[in-house]
Amino acid sequence: MDTLTTPAMGHNQPPAYDPDVMADLAGRTDEFMNASSRIRKEFSPIQTEEHARLLTDHVSGLRGLKKQVDDARKIAKKPFDEGAKAVQEAFNPLLDRIGRALDAMLEMQGDYLRRQAEKERARKAEEERIAREAQLAAEAKAAEAAKSGDIDAEAEVGRLQKEADTLARDAARKTRVNAGSATGAGRTISMVTLREAVITNINLLFVHYRGRAEVIDVLQLLANADLRAKDWDGTDIPGTATKTREVAR
Question: Which pTM value belongs to this model?
Fold first, then answer.
C-alpha cells in the first residue's frame, strides 16, 4: 500500500464550513485586499475631498465584508458551540459531584494523616530524648573510666557510645506519614506543604510586581476604560497623563 497516496482515515469527512460560502468570501476578500493595496499606493496621502469620499465608500465596503465574514464564521461555528455546550452540560455535573466527593474524602484522609503525623512527632521526640540520655550516659562513663583508668570501663564506654550513636541516627532518620493503597491499585496519599501568599500590604505588593508586563497591561486596561466612560469628569487618573488622538472610525 502506498502510504503517500492513500487517503488518511477521515479523508472523506466534510469540512466544518460551507466551501462555496468560503470560496465566495475568500474571492471577495482578495479583491478588496488588492484594491486596498492599490489605493494606498496611488492615493496616499489623500489630497482631495472626492478621493476622501471614495475612500469612505471603500471603508464601508471593507466593514460590510468583515461583518459578512464574521457572520459566516458564527454560523459555521454555532453547531460546534452547541455541541460543546451540550458536552459541558452533560459532564460538568458529574465532575462537580466527583470533585465534592474527592474534597470530602481528602479532608477525612488529611485529618487522619495529621493525627498520625502528630503521633510520629511525639515518637521522634521520645527517640531523641532516649538518644540524648544514651549520649550523656556514654559521656559520664567515659569521664569515670578516664578517672579510674579501668580497662574494662573503657571497653564499656565504647559499647555505650556505639549504642548512643545508633540511637542518634535512628532519631535523626526522617519518616513520612502517608496512607497506602489497600489493593495496591491506588496512588499513595501523603501530606504535602503548600505555600500561599496572604496579602498584608497591597501597596508593598504592587511595588514588588509593578515592573511585570501583566500588571502594566491590567492597569492600562483599567485606566483606558475609566477615561472612555461616559461619566469621566475630565481629570487625569492618578499616576497618568491623559492623551488624546484622533482616529478614523
Answer: 0.58
